[in-house]
Specification:
about 375 residues, elongated, binds uridine-5'-diphosphate, about 35% helix, binds manganese (II) ion, Spore Coat Polysaccharide Biosynthesis Protein SpsA, Chain A, single chain, 9 strands, alpha/beta, 7-stranded mixed beta sheet
Amino acid sequence: MTTWRQDDLSVRKCVRHGLSKAHERDSSLSSSSPRGPQHLRFQVLLVWEVWAAVAAMMRLRRPSSLLWAAALTFMFFLYIALPSSAPPEPCLCGQQQHSLPPNALPKTHPLDKHKLALLIPFRDRFEELLEFAPFIHNFLNKQHKNHHIYVINQVDNLRFNRASLLNVGFLESSVDCDYIAMHDVDLLPLNPEVRYQFPEEGPYHVSAPHLHPRYHYPTFIGGILLVRREHFRHVDGLSNKYWGWGLEDDEFYARLKEAKLEIFRPGNLTSGIKDTFRHVHDQRRRRRDMIKCYNQQEVTRHRDRHTGLSTVKYSIQSRKEVTIDGAPITILNAVLECDKVTTPWCDCTESIGNTPRSQLAPSKSEDVIVPRLNRKKHLSHDG
Ligand code: UDP
Ligand code: MN
């Protein structure tokens, strides 16, 4: 009886979503899913039995039995045709439905016509990722946001390059995703009022300076930034010159400004700097790579008009689909390439010091992208 009930629910759902869909899944899962064809057989059997009864009764010419058979048929069709009170779910017929934990199934939210690609630049932050992936997956599901998490794991021996990894993530993520989140792995939104909506009018800076636990200067756009796919392409993504920690987000700010894209931010939240996000960052364990070598300091102070999304050089060593506590994620193991003529500072191991600015040719001052920081006002001691 219990088995019948389970099968019956699946049959009903599949019938409502169209037999073709059920059939597609059944055939794609055929090696591992003996239940799919059983549903169909069960359904065909039921219809067959009802009509066999009708035929027998016609032969016996018993009008009362004929009535019973007609009523049964009518009830059967009513049963599969009536909408259920449960919220709409994708048709997940077959074994998949019973063998995976329910929150591991990719959810689609039919009322959200947009899809977000969360791009996570990553290297050696395993514990943070284990916490981040299920947390953000559940957070976004509660907001009914269609999304997919991409972890772009830098596996070469060069210095970390957050900006280039975001360019790679953009190029490797599905074009079904019409907006991206440039998202740090160590920043968790705590307040459900923090929204990840489609940034219709212009980039939306989720971790705004008045909410980020650490950075509070007005032009800050790091941490979590939502950008429409076409806007990201329009500014040619981020510069590929930023190896090591810092300034790549400030250079991106200059790109957005130049493109006259307005940046939007959350307003009127019930939380502030201390309780809107959790920054999972112990600065002794997760040291920021602030080394400067060659002429890095001088070059990276300026707007870059030569490199970006269109020039990033990389290869994908492997692509893994994994699930962390119910959150499906794609891990892209990326090997970045460095042009050592233009950016020799992608590798500072030869302990070449930083070239003093006095030895360099003067540069255009309007191209400087370094924010003026008042340490007391613009920086908290978080992380
Ligand atoms: N990151 C990483 N490994 C590193 C450095 C950075 O995965 O070695 C990624 C990670 O997503 C992190 C983001 O880059 O959240 C920003 O770096 P970090 O936290 O060091 O900068 P902060 O914003 O705290 O100054
Ligand atoms: Mn951090």
